[in-house]
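Task: sequence design from structure.
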């Protein structure tokens, strides 16, 4: 397995492009950075070194890591807009944001501001949910920012490979009276990292 992870902040990777980091589409891949430029609900351009594009196994790993968060993207293009990878289409369903159940407790105020700067339409609000539920897997910050901008609906799709831990997170969110995106508690960047990141670290350390 290669060293691949989503870039979450510029503090850790100051050389990364802020616009992709704020959209959560920048990835660290074996000492290089790969960006995914989402064109529409189905397509994205891969911006990366030629050596990554030419390494089919590594490219597959990168795309799968990206699709863990954005499974609805099914067509991947190179910078010349040539198709390099294609998957079966994903069904999207339009729902009320207020009908979705969060699986976390907090949102980062700094990232809310970042999301507010680029959320323009419903195609920026495509959210994975746990199979056969309304449980949000990823995208809490986008949804919170969208509500502040006056959006009331979003698209969802089923994240087939979402972990069972999500059910525990939802249970604990409900125990904290978090039933809607608007119930999430905004925190400063430092508070968010201290409270939420530490909670996740402790949870998974205990599970292991």
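Answer:
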């Amino acid at each position: 397995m290669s060293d691949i992870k989503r870039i979450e902040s510029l503090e850790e990777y100051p050389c990364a492009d802020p616009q992709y980091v704020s959209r959560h589409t920048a990835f660290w891949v074996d000492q290089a950075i790969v960006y995914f430029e989402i064109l529409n609900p189905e397509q994205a351009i891969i911006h990366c070194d030629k050596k990554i594009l030419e390494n089919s196994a590594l490219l597959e790993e990168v795309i799968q890591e990206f699709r863990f968060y954005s499974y609805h993207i099914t067509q991947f293009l190179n910078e010349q807009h040539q198709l390099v990878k294609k998957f079966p289409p994903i069904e999207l369903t339009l729902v009320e944001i207020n009908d979705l159940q969060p699986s976390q407790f907090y949102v980062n105020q700094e990232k809310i501001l970042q999301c507010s700067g680029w959320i323009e339409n419903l195609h920026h609000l495509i959210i994975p949910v746990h199979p056969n539920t309304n449980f949000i897997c990823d995208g809490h910050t986008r949804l919170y920012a969208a509500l502040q901008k006056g959006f009331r609906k979003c698209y969802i799709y089923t994240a087939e490979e979402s972990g069972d831990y999500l059910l525990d997170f939802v249970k604990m969110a409900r125990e904290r009276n978090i039933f809607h995106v608007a119930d999430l508690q905004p925190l400063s960047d430092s508070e968010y990292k201290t409270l939420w990141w530490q909670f996740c670290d402790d949870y998974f350390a205990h599970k292991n």
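Helices lie at 18-22, 50-54, 56-69, 109-118, 140-148, 165-175, 189-207.
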